[in-house]
Design goal:
The protein is mostly helical and 112 residues long. Helix content is 96%, strand content 0%. The chain has helices at residues 3-82, 85-111. Helix 1 (3-82) packs antiparallel against helix 2. The longest helix is centred in the middle third of the chain and has 80 residues, at 3-82.
Amino acid sequence: MTINDNLRDAAYIAIGMGVIGFQRAQTRRQDLRKQFADQRAAFESRGAEVVNLVSEALKQADAAISPVVDALEAQVDNVVNALPAQARTLVEPARQASKDARQQLRSRVATA
């Protein structure tokens, strides 16, 4: 064997090792991609469960609090109706803004 033959064999071995290393890296990358996809699917599934549980809890809390809020609004209505007209015109926009904010919150909870 000559030096050229030895160098050629060494080059073939180096190239072969590089190809094998590259193939192993590709296989590992694909394995990791699959593993991460599985973990992501599990995480999203758990996240959806949590969102559903929280949404249900908020709906139940809203149902429990609604009678109290309605009673308080009735009392506020009595007080507002007893106010002079000028004071009533100042209070009404704030009450309407409060009702709108509560309705927006309820609609967002319902869609969650």
